[in-house]
């Protein structure tokens, strides 16, 4: 192993992954009614793919107003809202990253909405180090599509078993496994336990 890619949300940083219906909390705070939830879920399943490609931010605001009767504040950004209210430091992961970067090159392989990674960095939610960055909103492809892993491989300068990828979604680990990468599933339902297990795995 010579290069380690980390996912951000639910690995390097705490997000809604360990929150019981975290999206429901966000949506209720915006004014979405319970009986609108299924319709919204169906819509968001399609929209999230656009958001991960750096598109759809304005569409989200219009859709909430026109189809769900939810008037969001002027200049509302779902990226800003998530980062400011629902994303938090995964403190122990900073120590893990510090140890890893002393032995291996490190990178970020992440699905992000437009501008979200800069917001995360500015809020100091992840370690400020010299990462190799593969951001879906910049690359215009997303996990679990093969293309983003090919880009990540090229950017790392390594192939196959020389790369380890750590992610909290099993579906995002299937393609890199097929490409010969080492993979590690991080269980974001229990950050404390998962940090301990990951730390032991990396020793």
Q: CATH superfamily of the largest domain, called what?
A: HAD superfamily/HAD-like
Please bin the fraction of helical residues. Answer: 40-55%
State the end-to-end distance: 12 Å
Q: What summary fits the major beta sheet?
A: 5 strands, parallel
Please tally the helical runs, counting DSSP H or I stretches of 4 or more residues: 10
Rg, please?
17 Å
CATH C-level of the largest domain: Alpha Beta
The overall pLDDT average reads 95
CATH-level-2 architecture of the largest domain: 3-Layer(aba) Sandwich
Q: How many structural domains does the protein architecture include?
A: 2
Indicate the structural class: alpha/beta
Could you tell me the strand content as a percent range?
A: 5-15%
InterPro entries: HAD-like_sf (IPR036412), HAD_sf (IPR023214)
Notable traits:
203 residues; alpha/beta; 2 domains; 5-stranded parallel β-sheet; two-stranded antiparallel ribbon; 10 helices; 7 strands; 45% helix
Ordered list of secondary-structure elements with their pairings:
Layout: E1 3-6, E2 13-14, H1 22-30, H2 37-51, H3 57-66, H4 78-85, E3 88-89, H5 91-101, E4 105-110, H6 116-122, E5 132-135, H7 136-139, H8 146-156, E6 163-167, H9 174-178, E7 182-185, H10 191-202
Parallel strand pairs: 1-4, 1-6, 4-5, 6-7
Antiparallel strand pairs: 2-3
Helix pairs in contact: 5-10
């Amino acid at each position: 192993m010579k290069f380690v890619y980390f996912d951000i949300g639910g690995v390097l940083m705490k997000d809604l992954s360990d929150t019981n219906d975290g999206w429901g909390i966000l949506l209720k705070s915006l004014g979405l009614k319970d009986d609108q939830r299924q319709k919204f879920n169906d819509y968001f399943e399609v929209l999230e793919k656009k958001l991960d490609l750096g598109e759809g931010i304005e569409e989200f605001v219009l859709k909430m107003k026109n189809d769900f009767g939810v008037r969001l504040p002027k200049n509302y950004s779902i990226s800003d809202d998530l980062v400011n209210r629902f994303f938090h430091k995964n403190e122990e992961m900073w120590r893990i990253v510090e140890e890893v970067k002393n032995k291996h090159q490190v990178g970020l392989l992440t699905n992000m909405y437009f501008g979200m990674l800069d917001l995360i960095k500015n809020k100091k939610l992840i370690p400020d180090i010299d990462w190799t960055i593969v951001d879906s909103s910049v690359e215009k492809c997303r996990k679990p599509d093969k293309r983003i892993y090919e880009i990540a491989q090229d950017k790392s300068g390594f192939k196959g078993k020389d790369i380890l990828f750590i992610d909290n979604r099993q579906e995002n680990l299937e393609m890199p496994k097929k490409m010969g990468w080492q993979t590690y599933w991080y269980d974001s339902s229990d950050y404390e336990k998962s940090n301990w297990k990951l730390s032991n795995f990396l020793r």
